[in-house]
Here is the input.
Amino acid sequence: MVSAIVVFDPWYGCTRTVAEEVARGLSFDGRVATVVSAVREVSPEQVLDHDIIVIGSPNHHGGPTPSVERMLTVLRTHDLRGKRFAFFDTGFVRGHGRVTARMESILRYRNPFVSAPFLGLSVVVERPRGPLLPGELSKCHELGRSIRTSAPVPA
Ligand SMILES: Cc1cc2nc3c(=O)[nH]c(=O)nc-3n(C[C@H](O)[C@H](O)[C@H](O)COP(=O)(O)O)c2cc1C
Here is the structure.
């Protein structure tokens, strides 16, 4: 069975909420076995056991958190052929798209085998500790579904 992991860095809770909703979207039809894990509770090797890898981070000063950056920096040293990646971040509207782009460029750095294109989503929070803006959670579910439906899954 195709498997997916949603890795996130938990700070105040918004990014965890997004991770769990993306995972629900990914497993909507029961054809992708999906796990959710905090980035410090999983090794890069365990992440690479999965076919679909989704990584999420809060926006901290325009980039991912140090733990997420470390994870990406190790992942990019591996052969990533056949792996499907997607990224999400949480933050204010002014930072929209910046962190997912940064995560993508960290992973691609000197790694010619990363498949393209990525799916990415910036999820907007109202205040530093949340909550998410109304309507954002359904986009998270949709991201999960889009990753699932764009992945080749045997019948
Ligand atoms: C140290 C720190 C730096 C931050 N820098 C930014 C920033 O540059 N841009 C932005 O949009 N949000 C920034 N934020 C707001 C976070 O993105 C927000 O707290 C986060 O999305 C909430 O998710 P969480 O509950 O998972 O921590 C920052 C928050 C912290 C704690």
User: Anything to note?
Assistant: The longest strand covers residues 84-91.
